[in-house]
Amino acid sequence: MAVRHDSQEDPSDAGSTGLPDFGDNIDPMTFEQILEMDDDEDEREFSKSIVFGFFEQAENTFKNMDASLESKDIAQLSSLGHFLKGSSATLGLTKVKDACEKIQHFGAYKDETGTNDVPNKDVCLERIKKTMVPLKRDYAEAESILKRYYHESAI
Description:
By secondary structure, the protein is mostly helical. The chain is built from 6 helices and no strands.
């Protein structure tokens, strides 16, 4: 009976947030934790400032990643991947976080899981370059979803 009660709680808890379906781009439980910090649920000024600050941070990080790719600065790419992984994880941007983690690993001369060595710099740089494509696409999708969310919540 307790198990049935718990399973009944989960859907009502998820439905109580009023969050749209973020698909697999954004983890709603993580994002909801950011929303809980808002003083005013109608304005959402605090969470909006965090999210839009992240957008600016991500755009600058992408520019730095592109420059680091051009200069083949693999250590900087690993560092930038680690940096963006943390901030995207805080917001629940799961696909962005996962791609950034791969970049972090490739920049440390590891495979995408971070467990096996890949001692060839050119192979690692090529893997980073290939990972940047879905990273930027997934970021753009998450950005679009979140911008729509805040536009709708401001109405």
